[in-house]
Amino acid sequence: MSARATTIAGAGGAGPASRGWDVPALEGGTPIRNTLLPFARPTLGVEEERAAVQALRSGWLGTGPRTEQFERAFAAFVGCRDAVGVSSCTAGLYLALRALDLGPGDEVVTSPMTFPATANAIRQVGATPVLADVLPGRLTLDPRALRAATSPRTRGVVAVHFAGWPCEMDDLLAVAREAGLVVVEDAAHALGATYRGRAVGTLGDAAAFSFYATKNMTTGEGGMITTDRADLGDRLRRERLHGIDVDASRRAGSVYTHWEAVSDGWKLNLHDLASAIGLAQLAKLDGFVRRRRLLDARYRARLSELDAVEVLPGPSGAETAAQLFPILLRPGALRIDRDRMLEGLLAENVGVGVHFRALPQHRFFRETLAMSPDTVPVAMDASDRILSLPLYPSMSERDQDDVIEALTRLARYYAG
Ligand SMILES: *Cc1c(COP(=O)(O)O)cnc(C)c1O
Hints:
Layout: H1 46-58, H2 65-78, E1 82-86, H3 89-99, E2 107-110, H4 116-124, E3 128-131, H5 143-149, E4 154-160, H6 169-179, E5 182-186, E6 194-195, E7 198-199, E8 206-210, E9 223-227, H7 233-239, H8 248-251, H9 272-282, H10 285-303, E10 309-311, E11 318-319, E12 325-329, H11 338-347, H12 363-368, H13 377-385, E13 386-389, H14 397-413
Parallel strand pairs: 2-3, 2-4, 4-5, 5-8
Antiparallel strand pairs: 1-9, 6-7, 6-11, 8-9, 10-12, 12-13
Helix pairs in contact: 1-9, 2-9, 3-4, 5-6, 10-14
Bound molecules: pyridoxal-5'-phosphate (PLP).
Pyridoxal-5'-phosphate binds at residues 88-90, 114-115, 117-118, 160, 186, 188-189, 210, 212, 223.
């Protein structure tokens, strides 16, 4: 499929071309690939199609038997007490924080290396998100920075697992315990990851997973809250759906049951059509994660030869969910910056992503919420040097070779 440019194409100009390196497509060379390798792609097959059609034909589309089945299967996969289906990970973070009684006047510490959803969920319960810096190289919350960011008003922490690697949880949990903080895992990147033999999703008071199209499994849109706490499951199940005490599928039984709103509630449930797809995806999840880990290991081995590129290590005793493959461009190693590298890879027909530009790089967080870049220098530095390479189960080794070749070509041509 790919047109491997082994000769110097285009004029290229002086310098690197005369040393014999390939000229990047950005400089007039022939792209490594003829067609764009997407940055991410869901892996869906006839099983998902069949499950969706069955759900459509069942006559029950709301939250019902398929969601119950999916929740039980998901809880079994993670090895937690309870799992509650929700409309997104964002909704899950919000409901979990609320069920843990966080609200106005409370501060919740989180990582700046995350998607806006993490901070927004904290804001939605009325609490104030406070940033603590990340560990260099790993880009997950630094336990010492968490301790330093803790004030008398701090009541919780959202630990964002990053790119598939879990946070350094034992140290974070020790700080949280000492300060009396509840711990919510943002596990959007980490379905299938383990930390010292424990599954992500069982490490804090509650965790939220994402079934967005690019994540380790998808339902189109959707999410799941997991918890080992006996007091949370029923409350979460009620509050995701109007605060009503009897759910809709039970209301539709042969005996009429009066339902009653017994608490505050929202409309953040996962529906049965999504859960049908989720069940089919969950059955394949072990295979997805295995394939992602294999590609992850292959990237690590091959990119270790490139001095300009750093890859992220995980904590000791952890297994990655290999959700993303971020690399950091080593300072001073290249004559181009990260943004030019993104353009260079796209010109070679290789899809790219950026995970993440730290929260203070977003105007809203910087200006409205006064999140200062000065308090999170490690995250700010990583923000300018980081980019993500394609990583998903349906990618072939050949596709991956194209990515590595494109990156190598650019790194050599622009070597500083
Ligand atoms: C994707 C993502 C979310 C949001 O997930 P949704 O299901 O789209 O709400 C939250 N946090 C992180 C770190 C993410 O990557």
